[in-house]
Amino acid sequence: MRQFKWRLALVLVVVLAAVVLIFPSLDYYSKDRATVGPASKENTAWPHKVFNLGLDLQGGMHLVLEVQAEKAVESLMERKLHDMRDELRNARIRHTDLGRERDVISITLLGNEAITNFEKMMDEQFPELSYLSRSPTGENETVALNLPEVEKSRVMENAVGQALETLRTRVDEFGVEEPQLVREGKRRILVQLPGIKDAEKAKQRLGETALLEFKLVDDNLRAEDYAFDSARLPVGRQILPMESKRQDTGRIIRENIVVMQQTLLTGDYISEARVRIDSDFGMPYVSLKFNRKGGQIFAQLTGDNVGRRLAIVLDGVVRSAPVIRDRISGGEAMIEGNFTDEEARDLVRVLQTALPAPVKILEERTVGPSLGADSIRMGRTAMIVGGLLVILFILVYYKGAGLIADIAVMLNMVMIFAGLALLSATLTLPGIAGLVLTIGMAVDANVLIFERIREELRSGKSPGAAVDSGYGKAVLTILDANITTLISALVLFQFGTGPVRGFAVTLSLGIVCSLFTAIVVTRVIFDYLVYYRRVRQLSI
């Protein structure tokens, strides 16, 4: 009898907790809500969402992105090039033709002394770089430098990891519940945004690289003169698009300008980006603050080029090209462009969460909410039809015991939904399939127990002894079968993605709940009938 009381208390606690989780209506009939009319839309809504719906049910966006990690290596080599230029100037090493082609830095050293001093500088300042080739020409030598393959792999691996974290930060801005960001393979990232409202803006935001570069403008050349033959451009120049906004009409004006190909400073040196308001005109602009090294480079850059225009290039587009009036030694710069407040804030967010390498959209799917509504309706129909057939069959075949099993099946479904709510799990279309499967699996354990009880009754045992023996002999078999299935479901959850994990969640919850209802709940009902009601014959 003591075991019966403990089992009964456990069942009541679990059922009460499940009801509270599924029907979170403690504040539903509060005084504030009572003032809303009974026909009000608010009065018919849930107080809060019980669990989340997956991408396939509520609609949203599915993207597969590829991180172009080799660009991270090129960016690193660009920074090395800047640092090397400074070190060469400080050490007074005679050289020419210092430049970069993708991930290779080349330089021609003038004289034996320059070669010796360069080797010493490389050992002390750039030990991570290796010699790709050395081509002596008389007393001079042309050297090509790059990163060792091990170091390249490390940089690219870090770029993918940083891209994943950066994308996660950007996704958090959308306020999407239960987004999925999963790394696939070496360079791919799967992004699922259920319920996203503005899919186009989200795609644009995720793909923004925020590669910020500072380049000098060549005002001696006009881009129009090379519009149809860019190959005639002098060496070291390139044509970039420039966007500006008219303050009076707000129209975007696009033109092309000629800039120096050499990048003098990059956004990697930025320590802070903020929106500020111009005190003269009241227009917002973006203020940039560099770290110590970046401040030194910017001060020298502005000091050496007073009177020239400096192009501020973001993702290959010139956002502004102000004239350098004087040397700027405070380590601060500004990006002006007749921004609105929202545009300035968006630009700051991009700069603060810059991707270490560009990302390319390999696959894109947008799921409409109407498809999700159809899936929910069909899944609900499948659950109802499947559940009714199982309940009817078990009731006809096992009679009174079948009614007990049917109660356990219905309680099992209540507990599964309560588990989804407790875990804040995401219900997907395969998850609904897992629910339908669970309905059939829920009665398996009862079938084993009922058949054991039938055998014991045929051997002449009393109802109480038959129930005890039936549960005792069937429990180990039930545990063995369900635990192996549970292990498979956990493996699916661990290594699966998206819909597969949704199926694994409902299947795992279904197994745990069916074990509880089959072994504990039905046993409580049988013990009540046998020991309290003292029935002399079981309907089974």
Overall description:
It is a single chain. It is built from 14 helices and 19 strands. The strands form six sheets. A four-stranded antiparallel sheet has the order 7-8-2-18. A hairpin with a 6-residue loop joins strand 13 (270-277) and strand 14. It is elongated. The longest helix has 55 residues, at 369-423. It has helices spanning 2-22, 31-34, 55-58, 70-91, 112-125, 149-172, 199-207, 292-304, 341-352, 369-423, 429-442, 444-458, 463-495, 499-532; strands spanning 52-53, 60-67, 95-101, 104-109, 130-137, 140-146, 180-184, 188-194, 212-216, 237-245, 252-260, 265-266, 270-277, 284-290, 310-314, 317-320, 332-335, 359-367, 426-427. The protein is an alpha+beta fold and 540 residues long.
Strand order of the largest sheet: 7-8-2-18
Strand percentage, roughly? Answer: 15-25%
User: Radius of gyration over alpha carbons?
Assistant: 35 Å
What structural category do the secondary elements indicate?
alpha+beta
Query: Average pLDDT, to the nearest integer?
Result: 80
Shape: elongated
Unreliable segments of 5+ consecutive residues: 25-48
Number of helices: 14
| β-strand number | 19
Question: CA-to-CA gap between the ends?
Answer: 23 Å
**DSSP helix fraction:** 40-55%
Biggest sheet features = 4 strands, antiparallel
